[in-house]
């Protein structure tokens, strides 16, 4: 059944085979593409950083960040929240990658106080964060992220 949708899926450059389970009936692929395009839009780029980095507001609408090539732990500081922001992170080097919100912001599901980081050092671990009016929410997560 998924074969008939493959022409529609080829535009998603980072689609994984196990993502096909979302496609269950006629018409579902359109809503699936709309949702996944937010995370796998080929017009966005992966931005590798080898040192700690403050993410800009302009970079906070769909870009991927990685620690590819880092020699030590690095931290990505999230910008001041604005509705509609979403940022994606993937660990590509086995060094701690920390994602740190602003002092008054939480990463819901992990943070117990403002400014608390989440981290991972396992290659392939991925997290997508989406901003609402006052906090960051986890939209997608894979791997062993912790505080």
Essential attributes:
four-stranded mixed β-sheet; 2 domains; 2 helices; globular; Jelly Rolls; disordered N terminus; alpha/beta; 147 residues
Describe the structure.
With 147 residues, this protein is α/β, with parallel strands linked by helices. It has two domains: 2-40, no CATH class; 46-142, Jelly Rolls, CATH 2.60.120. Helix content is 12%, strand content 27%. The chain contains two helices and nine strands, in the order H-H-E-E-E-E-E-E-E-E-E. The strands form two sheets. A five-stranded mixed β-sheet has the order 1-3-5-8-9, with helices on one face. It has a four-stranded mixed β-sheet with strand order 2-4-6-7, with no helix packed on it. It starts with 5 loop residues before the first helix and ends in a 5-residue tail after the last strand. 20% of the residues are buried.
